[in-house]
Amino acid sequence: MLTRPAATRRRGRRLVAGLAAAVILATTACSGSSDSDGGGTGGKTSLTLSTLTAPLSLDPSQLAEGQQAYLWSSIYDTLFSIDNDGTLNPNAAESWKYSEDARTLTITLRDGMKFSSGDPVNAAAVKATLERTKATPGQQQGKLTRVASIDAPDDRTVVITLSAPDPSLLTNLAYATGVIGDPKTLNDKRTALDPVGSGPYVLDDATVNGTTYVLKKRDDYWNAKAYPFERFTVRVIQDRTAGFNALRAGELDVANVENPQVAQAKAAGFDVRTVKATAVAELVLADRNGTLLKPLADERVRRAINMAFDREKIVKTFLQGSGQASVQLFNPKGVAYDAALDSTYKYDPAAAKKLLAEAGYPNGFAVTMPSTAVSKAFEPLVNQGLADIGITVKWDPVPPQNTASSVASKKYPMIFFIVGLSTSDRELLDNYGPQGFLNPFGTTDAELDALMTKAGTELDPAKSAALYQQINRLTVEKALNAPLFYIGTNWATAKGIEYLGTGANTMTTIRTFAPTA
Description:
Belongs to the bacterial solute-binding protein 5 family. Its main location: membrane. With about 525 residues, the protein is α+β, with helices and mostly antiparallel strands. It is about 25% helix and about 25% strand. It is built from 13 helices and 20 strands.
């Protein structure tokens, strides 16, 4: 068996199908104020985070990633963790081993971990939580489809047997899929709102569900030193302008600010750090078999679509510089990214029209796309770019609550969508896996499938990275989708708080922030 060391695969992170109430909403949250200073260091010991929405549930089987992770990642431990540089590390799992065929994962848990109730965190708890998540419909269930069985031969050992290699399993176990719940209370009503957790914080009685979540640090948590804030609050502030005003008023320590607000934030004394890529906007060319729209089965057509957009101009004018032009789907901080690929498709409507003519569509064609909360702001850009090469778009209105289901419906051959960046393994499976969210038709490519199979069984980090770069190159050259640009985020922090993110890990967690001296 091959042993996985403590800090190996460096990757970027997280798939979030962010409903874009605003353009930048796809990946991040506003954050809030702290109310006290540290004694000896002068740093803050309390932090308030403000999110746009309240968590739907804190039940492990119902967890959602994105902004809700601020809460559940503090209440629950995960088996693994991904640090701010994108490195996968042990967490509740002290070590792990994969079998040679990558179908058996053996995890050794840390000794002495406890739930907030005082009961031990053990292999039986891990087994119970994972089996319940696998059996319960929810956002995490699909991430365990390749898990054939879970065994707990002793208190510190968990053995996960797979029906087929799953290259995203370790990453998933570092996110919501890998939380550890208390078997005694998992099925209790309290779990949805006030669970017994295994993590560094517990909900305080001052919590008002749906509005304000107050968390206090557990002194008996095994890794308490990694969490310098003794107390923090997650407030629900649905309006981004209200969040910025609260920041300026001194009520908040941290906030996402849009480009026009950056100068104001700096003038007011806030430190502003920009992450150029936290989400990617793309035209999902879902029907690559041409089932609904025959032209999409032709690579020349897909390449023409990629040549129809002036990506640099879009970033400069529409995003006001808060982003980065790209023809790639993969996180720039991840192992799959290759900067050289961004020269593959230059903006060239004339050449695009020539390709369409060669494919048999000299007069272009028409396509129906879902008009969703994600696409609304960008529809004029899509209309213009495609119209310039002869493709006419009809937008079919979709209620906000049906945005995700419209992708899965197989009604639309092309879809505009924004997804939060993730690790290379998750990005690959979400976009091109047979059950990937952004591959609703389950379209396949023989060459890509062969590379994905190799990547799924390759346990050497360097060889794995090389395979992911091959995969990225193939998806770009065959124009399997049409990425347009990355969306960035500006973080403004008040005195006493430091933002530690680099873009390699875009999971929202309190460990992205630290008190300063």
